[in-house]
Each structure stands twice: as structure tokens, then as C-alpha cells.
Amino acid sequence: MEPWRILAEKRLKGIGKVILVGSGKGGVGKSLIAAATAAALGEKGYRVGVFDLDIHGPSIPRLFGIEGGRVKLRGSKEGLLPVEAGPVRVMSVEFLVGSNPVPLRGNAKTEVIEDLISNTHWGELDYLVVDLPPGTGDEVLLPLRVYRGHRHGFLVVATPSILSIHVVRRLITLLLDERVAIEGVVENMSTLPTGERHPGSDMLKALAREYGVPVIAEIPYDPSLETVLLRGGSLREAEVFWSSVTRLAEALSGSGAAH
Amino acid sequence: MHEWSVTQAIVEAILRFAEQEGLRKVTRVELEVNELSQLEVEIIEEAFRILSQNTLLEGSQLVIHRVPARFICNNCGYKWDLEEALAQLRDAADKHGIADEEGTVDPPTHYMPMLVYSFMQCPRCGSRDFDVENQFNVRVRAIEGEK
After folding, report:
1. Does B118 reach chain A within 8 Å, measured CB to CB?
2. b/e string for A97-116 if b means 16 or more Cβ within 10 A?
3. Which band of pLDDT confidence, cut at 50, 70 and 90, is reported for residue A255?
């Protein structure tokens, strides 16, 4: 076994369960849901880490108000120490590069993901929420290879749009083929700005049913969310969004305590 | 500090390999260290010696080869080495340096060499589209032992 995999295995020893958050395509609210789920689990008293592996578009630090330029990452004998944001420990490539571009290709991309996974010292956690990059490339396959050997569950984040449905199908097929435990589909923006149900909602639910995967959460459109994000407020202030995410966190923690 | 966790992973990887191969003793280990990571060879040697104690590796000879970092620009074809790139990396250490418990500040590339793409541009044309010749951090080149 390669040395980085040995280190990666060591990092998992103190972690109860890994919640992988992924989507077939970008722009469906994956990072937002990963961050909010971690915050909601933290609020319930769990020890939570959130791992931003979306190396080309890291957005987790901003969601916790700890952008790269504002915090200093620290190292230790055990490895890189995540940044603490209230009860949640956060690691992101942004803490290493600030606002610099991350123009990685092929092998370089997988090297950075291997290094992030193997160098981050999480310590003891009940849950590690991993914000995966969108798609089904190397940058997703690599973390799956590491984390599927540990206690884990995958949240497939999708919007009920006709444009994303085929992508969701491909992602679920891949996860089943790779023996990844799917926790459920998170239907983001399940309602329209008018408050009506999204017309594609039934289609997404039918797809989940076809694969025997539950729709674990429906997150309605919350008009206050963007305003809250713009002024750097807490996600809790977007009440409709937050109450749905809290229910998602309850469903996750109810489906089996971390330890 | 990072050298310790890297060496520990290498020692464990070699021990697993030795077990698989049915080695009773490892006599010689050759490692390649990419100079881009700026890992300190002396610390790796010390960590290796201490972590090898009471294992199949105890007393084995450790040989470390420093592998030079070389870069080639895909835009203008210019080739350069680490020495020419050090100024850019020093700047990265100033702005994004990571301090450890002993107060040593390392550039991010110490932990993740491929982040060089975030901190380096072609010295001639300024492009970030370049290739790095060796992309690994540390790797085992050879292991010798007795069955």
C-alpha cells in the first residue's frame, strides 16, 4: 500500500462516520448543504469536521466566515490542523493558497487531493462531512476509494431540474457499482420562488425510487438565503432553509449514531 | 515536522511490504525525495532510525536520493529549475506560510508540492500552464532484505 493511503487510514481512526456530499453537476447547492449539515450536526453537540475537497472551487470557508486570507493554517507533528469555526473543524485548500488560482491538471490534481486527505489531522470526530467536487472524475473516485472502507454514507445533492436528472442517474449508478452506501438524495430547491412545488420534483423522486434510494431531505427555495450569504450572516438566519437542514441532520444522526 | 508523519507512513508501508514478501529482515532502503517538497533529509533520517527500532527495519541502511524539481512551460517552452523558482516560493511562504508547534514556517508546497501551480508562473512568459517533471513527494525506490 502506498504511504499516503496508510496516513489516510490513520486519519480515519478517530472518525465515527464519513458523510460524503456529492452531485453529478455543479451549481446545485452541494457545498451549501455540506456546510449547513456540518453546522447543524455541530449544533446538536456532535464533534464535526467539514472537508472541502472541491479544490477548483472551494467555498466552504466563506460559508463559515473564515476565508483563506483571514486565517492562518497551523501544522503539528501529527499533520495540518483544521481551522475551528465554532463547533466545526474546517479544512480547505483555500487555507493554503488564499485567493490564488488552483490550475491543476491530471496527476497534480490527484496528488493534491491525496496530500489533503493524508495530511489533515482531524483528531476525534463523530462526523466528517466531505464536500466532494462535482462530477465523477478522479477527484471524486479517489476520496471514494479511501472513505468507502470506513463507516460512511453518501448524500446525492440534486435539483429537480430536467437538466440534472440524467446526471443524477449516472452518479447513482456509479456509486452503486463502487459499493458506496447511499444515505439518500437531497432534493435542493424543491419549491419554486413562488412557493409552489417544483414541477420536476416527481421526476426526481421517481428516479430515486427506481434505485431504491430514499429522498432523505427536501430543501425548499428560501428567498432570504442569498441575502444572508451576501452580508456574511449565519445560515441559521435563513429559517426555511435551516429548518430543512436541521431535519436532514436529525435524519442522519437518527440513522445511526456515529459511535 | 511534516517529515515525521511522512516517514512513519513510509516505515509502515515498507513493513507491510516486507511482511507480504516474507522478509525476515530489511537490510537497505532507498528513498527518493522530491526537492520541491523541501523536506529535510536529516529529519527523515532521524525519524527513520527511531521509528525502525524494534522492527524488521532496525539497523537497515537508509539511502536518500534528492530528485530535482524541473519545470517546462507549455506556453513558451521555457525550462527552469527549483533555484530559479525559489523566489516565487519564498513569496508564497511569506504570504501563506504554515507555522508548526516549534515556530518553523513552511510554504504550503512543503505539505503539498503540487500546489506549486498556485504559486508559480513561468519566469519568462508568466503562464501558469507548465509541467512539473516529478510530481511525487517521497517514494520508495528500492528495498533489500533477507528471507
Report:
1. yes
2. bbebebebeeebbbbbbbbb
3. low
